[in-house]
């Protein structure tokens, strides 16, 4: 941005701190993506736990069986596989299953997992029949997660359009500077030109920020 809008080493030095802060700006976006992937994987994991309970596994062994199934589906490096392995390790240390699931829900920040943990804890403490309760709960949560995935798929094309449109102004300016460098010299060599470029950069940043806000769909 410093090169495109200012052609100045001073501007580059001023922009460097902003560039170093960019990961802090992007972190919430990446975190939201990880939460969506974890929610999608947890749907399969919850159904696997309910299925294991249905065929006679104990509540503790059902998590181990589900972990093995998730390892086959998502691999040992899959988020849900690692989380289920963590639950199994806690159970091996005689920690309550409901506490282990509640810890996962608290760390994940995914509403569906938090709701599942609440239902699981209530059913476990009331000595209810876990299998049908968890199966029904997993089915309800699965519908909600599926709806979120459908919304994400619907806006995927708009996200691509937004990415292209966000790059277009910088791309056009780069093309003009590369093809006709003298054409834009007044914008870089005069105070008025730098003021115009600063205004353009501000409007450019505002447009990108508004686009990100519009595409941040929460269900």
Account of the protein in words:
85% of the residues lie in helices and 0% in strands. The radius of gyration is 25 Å and the shape is elongated. It has helices at 2-5, 9-54, 59-74, 79-92, 97-108, 111-125, 130-179, 185-189, 191-215. The model has no long low-confidence stretch (mean pLDDT 84). It is mostly helical. Helix 2 (9-54) packs antiparallel against helix 7, helix 6 runs antiparallel to helix 7 (130-179) and helix 7 runs antiparallel to helix 9 (191-215).
Principal-axis shape: elongated
**Structural class of the secondary elements?**
mainly alpha
Count the DSSP helices.
9
Largest sheet: none
Average pLDDT, all residues: 84
Give the percentage of residues in beta strands.
under 5%
Distance from N terminus to C terminus (CA atoms, Å) equals 35 Å
Rg over alpha carbons? 25 Å
Helix content: over 70%
- The low-pLDDT segments are none
Order of helices and strands: HHHHHHHHH
Number of separate strands: 0
Which properties best describe this structure?
219 residues; mainly alpha; 85% helix
Describe the SSE topology.
Blueprint: H1 2-5, H2 9-54, H3 59-74, H4 79-92, H5 97-108, H6 111-125, H7 130-179, H8 185-189, H9 191-215
Question: How would you sum up this structure in a few lines?
Answer:
The protein has nine helices and no strands. By secondary structure, the chain is an all-alpha fold.
């Amino acid at each position: 941005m410093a090169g495109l809008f200012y052609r100045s080493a001073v501007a580059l030095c001023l922009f460097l701190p902003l560039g170093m802060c960019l990961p802090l700006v992007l972190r919430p976006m990446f975190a939201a993506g990880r939460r969506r992937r974890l929610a999608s994987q947890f749907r399969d994991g919850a159904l696997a736990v309910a299925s294991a309970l249905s065929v006679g596994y104990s509540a503790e062994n059902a998590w181990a069986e589900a972990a093995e199934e998730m390892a086959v589906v998502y691999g040992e490096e899959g988020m849900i596989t690692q989380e289920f392995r963590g639950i199994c390790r806690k159970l091996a240390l005689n920690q309550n299953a409901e506490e282990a699931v509640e810890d996962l829900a608290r760390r994940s920040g995914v509403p569906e997992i938090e709701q599942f943990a609440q239902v699981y804890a209530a059913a476990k403490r009331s000595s209810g029949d876990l299998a049908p309760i968890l199966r029904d709960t997993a089915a309800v949560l699965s519908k909600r997660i599926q709806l979120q995935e459908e919304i994400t798929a619907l806006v995927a094309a708009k996200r691509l359009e937004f990415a292209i449109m966000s790059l277009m102004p910088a791309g056009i300016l780069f093309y003009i500077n590369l093809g006709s460098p003298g054409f834009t010299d007044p914008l870089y060599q005069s105070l008025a030109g730098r003021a115009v470029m600063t205004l353009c950069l501000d409007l450019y940043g505002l447009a990108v920020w508004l686009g990100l806000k519009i595409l941040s769909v929460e269900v």
